[in-house]
Amino acid sequence: MTNEQHVGVAGLFDRVADTYDAVGVEMFGPVARRLVAELDPRPGERTLDVGCGRGAVLFPLAEAVGGGGSATGLDLSARMVESTRADAVANGVGVEVVIGDAQSPDFEPESFDVVASSLVLFFLSDPGAALLAWHRLLADGGRLGVSTFGDYSDQWRSVDAVFEPFQAPKTLDPRTQPASSPFASDEGMEALVADAGFVEVRTATMSLPVRFVDRDQWYRWTWSTGQRWMWEAVPEDQRADVRALAYEQLDACRDADGRIGFDQDIRFTLARR
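^ that's the sequence the OP posted. Answer follows.
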């Protein structure tokens, strides 16, 4: 990443760190648990969580590998790292959490048996370079697992469309922008991973129902995740109007029980070194 990109991404996640995955919406946890299950970490293995956030993947990795193994978390956000370290101490979880760039992590080659990264790769300016770096970190036969977003409910596109007039290229949906994005398909992701030298590349998927108690919980949730970028792109004097427009669209996004939400497909791309 360039220095400007470093500052932008780190600043964004510093601002969301205190509320990240903490507003009562089940999303990051289920994705993390499935990713860890697909990777099948074993006692004694050395594991790395790239872009660890508040530990949704990191802590299950630590539990799986036990005291004879290791679980290291890397994140660009100093505030995320600080908070995750505190969570680990409070819960008695033995992990190491360090500040670093996901695109060029500073570890010795072949330092890990497992490298995981959940909902991170599309934030990076050069995902291919990141995967090459992660390939170097794995021992022979080591396992890679990344999760990315797949398709989502058609009704939800109308909510996202409210923000489109304000979005810069960096905040556009990586599944469709550009049209050739590897994040747009299973095949695109598998090719991206294979081009970095990985073998036995495969895809697993899940459909995750993301639901909100009400429209205000959706609003708090968007401010507490990477979607905060969408709001910050809207001039302050227009945010109330945009929020009202979004709320109108949200009313069309109710399930059979009347709950607001959407179904989000998640893609897991798995491989070996």
